[in-house]
Amino acid sequence: MTIFFISVAALILGCLLAPTNLLAGEYDGTWQAKVTKHSSTCKHIGKAIEGDYTAYIQQDEGATITLTVKETGTVFQGVRMKADPRIIQLQASFLREAGIVSQKMNIEMIDENTGNGNANWDWSDGLMICGGNYTFTLKRKK
Known about the structure:
globular; 56% strand; 142 residues; Lipocalin; disordered N terminus; mainly beta
């Protein structure tokens, strides 16, 4: 009998401590992204200027996420993590200043209307390389 109660208690505790599926299927929409901090080692290419941006998020039937930044037209593709569905990992590559920019972005959704993120990026023209990073907040636009 004691083993049964311990097993039930462990099961209940496990359910309480497990990551919640806060936004499964509900990422779709328009979000305000506010870049709060950025740094760059590139002298000739600016990236992620602090300020407000509009992001459109679309989730397909599975865990695939597309995030498009209105002001730049940059399209990020990624997934919601199965281990913790509040985490979204995205990436994008595009041409800029005669080189290629590659970005990796992580977003942690706090609740159904807010999230925090960070991104690292590199630029290279095949001869030179530089890069930077930035942090941002997300707030769902109503």
